[in-house]
Amino acid sequence: IWLEAQANLKKVLTGQTFSTWIEPLKFLGNTDEAIILEVPSSFFQKYVIEKYLGMIREAISAVSPKSYQIEFQIVEPKPEPAAEPEPKPAKEEKKEKDKDKKSEFIPNLNPKYTFESFVCGASNQFAYAASQAVANKPATNYNPLFIYGGVGLGKTHLVNAIGNQILAKNPKAKICYYSSEKFMNEMINSLRYKKMDEFRNKFRKMDLLLIDDIQFMAGKEATQEEFFHTFNALYESHKQIVVTSDKFPKDIPGLEERLRSRFEWGLIADIQPPNVETKVAILKKKSDQHQVNIPDDVALFLAEGATSNIRELEGMLIRLEAFASLTGNEITLSMAREVMKDIIVEKTKEITVEMIQKQVAEHFRIKVSELKSDKRIKTLVVPRQIAIYICRELTKSSFPEIGEKFGGKDHSTIIHSVRKIEKQLSSDPDLKSTVEDIKKKLFM
Ligand code: ADP
Ligand code: MG
């Protein structure tokens, strides 16, 4: 079925799209309800689902009388991150039973979230160091460890990194990562099916308990009560507890005083919004992971335009990478501006023709007046063309407007310069890096 469907998709999609996004999908097998396809990465999967799932479904229903779900499996299978929506209670119960057969302790960690993949900067240094200390020597100095910070600043990443590191050193360690909601749901199910003892015992046997987003327990008294007892039991038997929250313990409304005071027994570490340099470093790291090269000026553009939420920053990067890959072009600043135009709303510095002239003149150690002149010596012609090209790329000025500001040159001279540089850029890496350099400085 898949081969037939694939052949049909080939007919309707452009060659580029087909070979980029459809061809790499490998048929792994099917069940009664679903067709399972292998994808090379989670990024790939996300993109295919967003853009082509509908088409794939249609292509399959065109060649098969039965309707199938499409499921994707990433080449290296990884456990679902815990932040996924909770399964329905009925299902949950079934899953619980399956779980019991294998092991009581599903660490539930996201293997991608490690210390290696975390960029340490001024804003998260303290939380990073504290997390490493805990991962290296659990339950010695900092127990509990309480990490707080705004949305998308890396709390979930850090607690997973602690778990992954401990597990890497000691695969038998009994580690569990729980979102507060999951803790609550499991507790409610245990209550409903009269398995509270089992629930309690399980938690009390753990070596490391990671509880993410404790603020969601606010106002849920029974959950807090249960967590309080779990906390005490673990703490008394010298087991490490790590808790995250979007707020400082005192600022979480509806959190019981006795829990709050326990959090203050240990170490409280904050994560602040990242500065631009850290954001650039994160973008570089993520794009390396995706094996995509993003030029410095583009990274800077995204970092400056983004909010401090790193998840959003990553979203921008993925969008840009997808666009580049779909159009078969390399990522450039002008592409980034185009793709992000609805997201980054003119937060960027307004670049003027005069700024560009000054920067280019400085770069080539010539005078702005020489740049504007009509002198046709090579040491001036090339910088002039580069300046004109950048003006066209980074300002909204028209050809005549640019000509006007370059000593009254006519329209065709300007067009000629732009074309000339455009053409050379693809074959001349030196020129390319010169242009990128100048653009980067313009945005600093
Ligand atoms: P939070 O739990 O604080 O809302 P997450 O831990 O889910 O935030 O982080 C959001 C995204 O940003 C994740 O994909 C994470 O990998 C990434 N991220 C956050 N901080 C960093 C960092 N310092 N280095 C690398 N990636 C980061
Ligand atoms: Mg989180």
TrEMBL record:
InterPro entries named among the record's database cross-references: AAA+_ATPase (IPR003593), Chromosome_initiator_DnaA (IPR001957), Chromosome_initiator_DnaA-like (IPR020591), Chromosome_initiator_DnaA_CS (IPR018312), DnaA_C (IPR013159), DnaA_dom (IPR013317), DnaA_N_dom (IPR024633), DnaA_N_sf (IPR038454)
GO cellular component: cytoplasm; plasma membrane
PROSITE patterns the UniProt entry points to: DNAA
GO molecular function, one term: ATP binding
Renumbered residue ranges of the record's region Domain I, interacts with DnaA modulators: 1-85
Entry keywords, A to Z: ATP-binding, Cytoplasm, DNA replication, DNA-binding, Lipid-binding, Nucleotide-binding
Annotated spans, Domain III, AAA+ region: 108-324
Major localization listed first in the record, in broad terms: cytoplasm
Chain ranges of the Chromosomal replication initiator DnaA C-terminal domain: 352-421
Intracellular or extracellular location(s): Cytoplasm
Region Disordered, annotated ranges: 78-105
Region (Domain IV, binds dsDNA): 325-444
Family of this protein: Belongs to the DnaA family.
HAMAP family: DnaA_bact
Assembly and interaction partners: Oligomerizes as a right-handed, spiral filament on DNA at oriC.
Protein name per its UniProtKB record: Chromosomal replication initiator protein DnaA
Organism: Geomonas silvestris
